[in-house]
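dumping this here before i forget
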Amino acid sequence: MRYVVAAVAVLVILGTLGAIKASQIGSLMAFGKKATAAGPPPEAVAVTEAKSQTWEETLDAVGSVASSRGVSVSAQAAGVVTRIRFESGDVVKHRQVLVELDTRVERAQLASQRVRRDLAQLNMKRMRQLVASGVGTQAELDNNESVLRSAEADIKSIQAQIALKIVRAPFSGKLGIRAVNVGQFLSAGTPITELEADQGTFVDFTLPQQTLSQLSVGMAVRASVEGQTGKAHSGAISAIDPNVDPITRALKIRATVPDKENELRPGMFARVSVVLPKRRGVVAVPATAILHAAYGDSVFIVEPRPADAPGAEKTPDGKPILVVRQQFIRSGGSRGDFVAVEKGVQAGQRVVSLGAFKLRNGASVFESDSVKLDPKLDPKPQNR
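structure:
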């Protein structure tokens, strides 16, 4: 009898546990069906309206900064450096003395030639007196004149040799790093330093030959260099090369860009935009709204939630739930934080501007106040 009671008790316990488990499984299945009907929870995104804007037409290129005048200063004659009258990075004036070489031999020769000239002048004076009194001859006078002119020419020759050993700045500008020291022997042509003009800067760049009909001297140009975020230097086209490169089929163009703040350095990489006179209307969206993929660019267009769609119509805090539709587009140029959409989006349509990377076609979303974007045509981010 004991065994029968124990067996009945075990069966009762097992039945109770089975009933509890069946209830739990039923609750989970009901929750799953309810979650399936409701769909995934909506994603928080930022939404922006595609805007119709008027953009200036530009031709964009890359180039490099070049000095309007730049030379390697060198000695024209051989000699030993006796004095250096500049430091690396100095700003100098035209004809300012930079380096002096040893000229002791030339100055001694100059003193000797001046003595010869003085004697020739004295003999010339005496011979003129003799010719005037009828004692001297014209041939002797001509000979003395020749000796005097020869002595004066020798003096000028030695003075020119001395001048070659005094190195001067050929124009006003800023010097580079000094490459010589006192006591160093310099051969003719040995570089001493670099000199860059302090007035005017060029930016050289190239454009495809197809743009030739759109270009002319005097057109406005904007140039920006790496490291100067948000700042553009304004200038104008000063020259267009008459020849087209036979390999690249590109035109070489030079723009003059004033550099009053002395921020441009020869050799700097520059991004150049040639401003064309005409403007065009575009539909623009923030660059962050565009998803780039191998099969094409796309945006998510925000649309009202269909009335018969399953799930909640609002979030717990009362915001309407919307749906998104993935739309493939053809993107164009960019200006600041915006990108032009040439096909696929109309002005006034609302697109997801932040959070698009986590969406799929038909996903539910809601517009969040904590996710915001303020795109600008001329952004000026701060350096941090």
